[in-house]
Specification:
CATH architecture of chain B: 3-Layer(aba) Sandwich
Largest sheet of chain B: 5 strands, parallel
Number of helices of chain B: 11
CATH architecture of the largest domain in chain A: 3-Layer(aba) Sandwich
Helix content of chain B: 40-55%
CATH topology of the largest domain in chain A: Rossmann fold
Radius of gyration of chain B: 19 Å
Shape of chain A: globular
Distance between the termini of chain A: 45 Å
Strand content of chain B: 5-15%
Order of helices and strands of chain B: HHEHHEEHEHEEEHEHEHHH
Oligomer: heterodimer
Strand order of the largest sheet of chain B: 1-4-5-9-8
Shape of chain B: globular
CATH superfamily of the largest domain in chain A: Thiamin diphosphate (ThDP)-binding fold, Pyr/PP domains
Largest sheet of chain A: 7 strands, mixed
Amino acid sequence: MASMYFNEALREALQEEMREDESVILYGQDAGIYGGMFRVTQGLAAEFGSSRVKDSPISEAAMTGVAIGAAMMGLRPICEIMFMDWISITMEQLVNHAAALRYGYGGNCKVPMVLRCPLGAYGGGALHHSKSLESWLAHIPGLKVVMPSTPSDAKGLLKAAIRDDNPVIFLEHKLLYGTSGEAGDKNHIVPIGKADVKREGSDFTIIATGKMVLDSLAAAEQLQADDISCEVIDLRTIVPLDKECIVSSVKKTHRAVVVHEAWKTCGHGAEVVAVLMEEAFDYLDAPVLRVAGLDCQIPFSLPLEKVVIPGTQKIVEAVRATVNGD
Amino acid sequence: MLELLRKMIIGREIDEQTLVQKKKGNIPGALHPAIGQEAVSIGAGAALRDSDTITTTHRGITDYIGKGGDVRAVVCEVFGRANGCSKGRGGHYFVNDPKVGVLGGTGVVGGTMAMAAGHALAFQTLGDDRVALSHFGDGAVNTGMFHEALNLASIWKLPVIFLCQNNEWALTVHVSKHLSCEHVVDRAKGYGMPGVIVDGNDVMAVYEAVSQAASRARNGDGPSLIEAKTYRIPGFATSDVGGYRSEDEVERWKAKDPITMFESVLLKKKIADSKEIESVKAAAKKEVGEAVLFALESPHPDPSTVFDYLYA
């Protein structure tokens, strides 16, 4: 199996699903002829034509509403919001309609849509091109929130998201687009709602999402030199949360940290910690710490950005602090 | 023609009889009656096919009836019962009946305009000749969604009709105080689509305007904006305490009641005599009365089913 970039794996997922199912369409700002800001949809307009791959106006709210309506009527629309910071503009449609209408209509419709959002700090994006807002969405019943960390998971999860009958928010960290790995064939589907143990370990559990999975793996490597064996769990899906996976790991290791780039206060890591309190309290030998984005707007200056965004070193420090504290 | 009258009366009766039940304490939450606006709802629905779709608003019960929605299902929903059209999840805000293309209502002003464009995108992509119609009020035309949805529908040439029920009042603010232009359709030019004003209390005029817009959409010529000038006789909701408009104004509009006006047309054109009209009225009243009794006797949703329908 050939190695490919993360964005190529996403493109392959889109391409395969569009070839397989004529009801799959996609649109977004510059997603058509240009091929998307991060090149994910490159070539798709040429292959599938302008009736299935469209450039949309800069109208995030209407783009989302159109996806809801089209999904109700039998399409499987995929809509790209160029930077997740601007999902704020879609929130009325996402929260009050995409997430709500199947319930509000007593099950009389389905809303099988995917909203793809590049997210995360990538060096100088500043306040409006850097945010990780997944926790905001995880709060809303009716949505699913997916966040892969490898090309293989990106492809398999995007295919699963397109086939899912619910609105799925699909989050792609911008610094992952240039990472590479094997991505599986056209039958490669990763089920939504299943976390993945990216590295097995016996002393410590690091629970992470998106790009923070890579940083956690690097941290685990460093900590191995100190004889601390870390298990790294990639949640892959924030909603629904794979409680079984995290609880069973912590029952084995008795210590954990939760890592995400999203802001710390009310970040989804707090939810993970709460699950461990509720379901694994008796197995814990130390408090579960959070390594998360600092509760600050994301600054433009690189030295300042580095303070706000977590990374390998902060994860290593948190693990050591937990180990030394017990 | 008598069918149009019958549906207008059904809509009116649902509003009036549920208002009575609300006062008796049998209905939770607020109600948003559409009394006075029936000609828009029924004329529009009659101009569409069953397979066409509508989206509507928090004031959508008569829109739903106009499109052929089931009477008992919506009345039971207003009462929050398990056999309502939303299984008690949505109340009157979320009217829906997919069998006749009602998908559907919302509690957010301007919330379903892009959704109708989305229905239309599906019809266009699937290559069939269905059309979608979005009902909304004059208040909704000042949301960002109005701008985004009309612009997007226009550039993508979607088979959708935007039907503004201009009832003069956005809750307690008069249209002259909230709209930047004289008529809503003044904005149509900016979106590159036809804008037509129609007497919203004249069911046949609404029928004609929507028929023309529908045939334009079916022919692949894109969206239209229609402004039906009408009036909301009751308050914005059952919580309305009044004080923002004159009794005179309300009385002037009551004199232009769309149902009475249409009865006169039917009599004048000798399409029906007064006996036939009375019998349609009595039957409609009876049907809604029975639906109300049926709803009152219907079960509430079982608490153990609260998560049902959240995810597919």
